[in-house]
Hints:
- By secondary structure, the protein is of the alpha+beta class.
- Helix content is 19%, strand content 25%.
Amino acid sequence: MIDSKYDYSGPWYHGSDQMLTTLRTGSSITKDKNVAKAFSHQPSHVSWSSTARIRHDGAAPGFLYLVAEEIGPDDVYPHPHPVNVDRWEWLTERELKLELIAETVSTAEERLTDEEIAELRRKQRERGEMSFLEWSACPPR
């Protein structure tokens, strides 16, 4: 889905728990460096606060990458999960070269507590929503 009003310029990032040089077609990228860093820790839950603070439950060390190619409207499309209405995550239409910019370590202040995760799950159930992982495992057709 090409959006001619979206600004595709500027840096794009990818977070992974693996050393990479190339990103496969269908992989996630974002313009938000902090989102990519959070996902480099392989979380199952991610939370954004009203102050744009990103917290997660990932503990794995990871890698933060810069997409080393220009991105245009034919290269990506917004992830279809309903939580992505603000278009923070995009999926790639082709392989992309990556440049490693940092090794990442998850800190205690970034991580959600068990109580916060339980509260996130409760609120999702109340709204009748699937988690991102549940949705990704069986997206609607």
